[in-house]
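Appendix B. Raw example, untouched.
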Amino acid sequence: MKIFNAIWTYLKDWKNLLAHSLVGVAILLVAFIIPVEPIYRILILVIVVALNLIRMKYSKKHQSVKE
C-alpha cells in the first residue's frame, strides 16, 4: 500500500506532470522528424522519472531544513 501512496503522490505533483508532458511532446515531435528506437524513448522516460524522484527528495529534505 505504501508503494501506491508514493506513486499517487508522485503523480499529483504538477512539476512531474509538466516534465512528463514536455518529454512526451518532444518524443512525438522527434518521432515524426527523426525515427527513434523505442528503447531510447523508454530510457528518456526512466531518466525523467529518476530526476523527478531526486528533485522531490531534495525539495522534501530542503523544506524540512527550513522549518
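End of appendix B.
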